[in-house]
Amino acid sequence: MNEEKRSRKILDRLREEYPDAHGSSLDYDGPIQLLVATILSAQSTDEKVNEITSKLFKRYSSAKDFAEADRDELESLIYSSGYYRNKAKWIQETCERIVKDHNSKVPREIDDLVKLEGVGRKTANIVLSDSFGTNQGIPIDTHVKRLTKRLGFSEAENRNKMEQKLMDLIPRDRWYEYATLLVSHGKRFCKARKPKCDECVINDLCPTAFSHG
User: Fold this and answer.
1) What is the CATH number of domain 31-132?
2) Residue 21: alpha-carbon gap to chain centroid
3) 122 is catalytic
């Protein structure tokens, strides 16, 4: 079975397994809030970020709000996300640039997004897919990277190289679906330390199934 056919079968089975797996699990209202929440999610969990933003977004909600925020107050509100000083700096500088260069609107092109502070391709792809419904790439987080390697689709350590290989393999209209389904499967079955290969719905399509038991 060639890679294209195998990848399609994997996606079809995972879609049946996770019919509700679509989009980010972050809580937000609009592109700016999603961008901020995604920056906060680095080295943190979505659950923790949602806890933080439930208070944060009551205080600041627009790009202008964040651009003009008191840095100390912003840091205190996001402290529990980890790396809070860097994240506060990235959020504020990114929002200042959005206000100045993009008329207070989150840019809709990945080349513009990745020029912002603290915004890599993963964050940009999530914002573009969830906020604007456009697939310009595949967000590669730790789950997607781990499962992509286990499935034998790419051995690249560099996430940009892995993303490019997947973009050549997966149909464009399923790029974001690939990421969201692998995240769901990674959290539930294909865990880093002890994957549940015997319970996995795609174990017959995975070249490394049962080798981690």
Assistant:
1) 1.10.340.30
2) 13
3) yes
